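Sequence design from tokenized structure. All designs in this work follow the same two-part layout: the structure record, then the generated sequence. An example of the structure record is given first.
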């Protein structure tokens, strides 16, 4: 990780922020792509003695992503890793789900992964690289009220495995992580009854912390994960196994 350059999408808060900060703690340089201000994370990261920069990027916009990734390579001199983490939920039962609810979630959660990976991989072809995509337990087992979200997260898994097969011989690895219930703004909005039910179903009897995901991202990006590609790692306290 030392001196590596990693793009973390959705790195201004939640799981993405934890990933950015943990990789920086391990000596990595970080570029944060987010639609909300991320300079507070950049300042914290720079205190660790590494380089960091915030890019105001909507990851669902291909042109914007391509321009920002070219700028990362120009500014930092290289690109080693990409963590596709940005994501949203628009939860509704299917019969209440509007076409726009479907399109928005697919565009932000899935098309963004195509956008960032396609634009980044051009720079990794000669040097090799590593990609970690944040999927979800919903993409693995489905979830009522999340047909759009689950489809986007299942799509990420198929995409990840295809990229692993296409670019393995170029020294590029691609893996996915499927987190369970992690304590962030995304899960804050769930009502207490749902949270209690979920807690009862989790064998480890606690919700995940953003750092639980960050540690696995580090493992996959580091030399410890160097023989792992096309894999999906559940980080869910045993909620699904
Ligand atoms: P979060 O706290 O809502 O953070 C997501 C970040 O991504 C926010 O800063 C968000 O900005 C940003 N973002 C949204 N749309 C974007 C876009 N078009 N371009 C760039 N940035 C964008 O979410 P989180 O809980 O940390 O989740 C991170 C990832 O983990 C997501 O992919 C999520 O699906 C996945 N995940 C989370 C859980 C969980 O329990 N929390 C479980 C499984 C998987 P805004 O504030 O403007 O939206």
């Amino acid at each position: 990780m030392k001196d590596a350059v990693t793009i973390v999408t959705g790195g201004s808060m939640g799981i993405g922020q934890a990933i950015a900060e943990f990789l920086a703690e391990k000596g990595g340089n970080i570029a944060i792509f987010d639609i909300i201000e991320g300079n507070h994370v950049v300042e914290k990261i720079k205190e660790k003695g590494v380089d960091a920069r915030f890019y105001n990027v909507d990851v669902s916009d291909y042109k914007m992503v391509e321009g920002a990734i070219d700028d990362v390579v120009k500014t930092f001199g290289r690109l080693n890793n990409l963590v596709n983490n940005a994501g949203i939920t628009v939860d509704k039962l299917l019969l209440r789900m509007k076409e726009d609810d479907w399109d928005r979630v697919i565009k932000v959660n899935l098309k963004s992964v195509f956008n960032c990976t396609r634009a980044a991989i051009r720079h990794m072809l000669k040097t090799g690289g590593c990609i970690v995509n944040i999927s979800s337990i919903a993409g693995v087992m489905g979830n009522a009220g999340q047909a759009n979200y689950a489809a986007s997260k299942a799509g990420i898994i198929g995409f990840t495995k295809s990229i692993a097969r296409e670019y393995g011989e170029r020294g590029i690895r691609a893996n996915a992580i499927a987190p369970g219930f992690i304590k962030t703004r995304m899960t804050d909005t769930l009502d207490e009854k749902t949270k209690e039910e979920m807690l009862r179903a989790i064998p480890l009897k606690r919700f995940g912390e953003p750092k639980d995901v960050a540690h696995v991202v580090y493992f996959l990006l580091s030399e410890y994960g160097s023989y792992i590609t096309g894999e999906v790692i559940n980080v869910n306290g045993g909620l699904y196994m």
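The pocket of NAP is lined by residues 9-10, 12-16, 33-36, 57-60, 85-88, 108, 134, 136, 179, 181-182, 184-187 (CB under 6 Å). We note this feature because it recurs in several other targets discussed in the main text.
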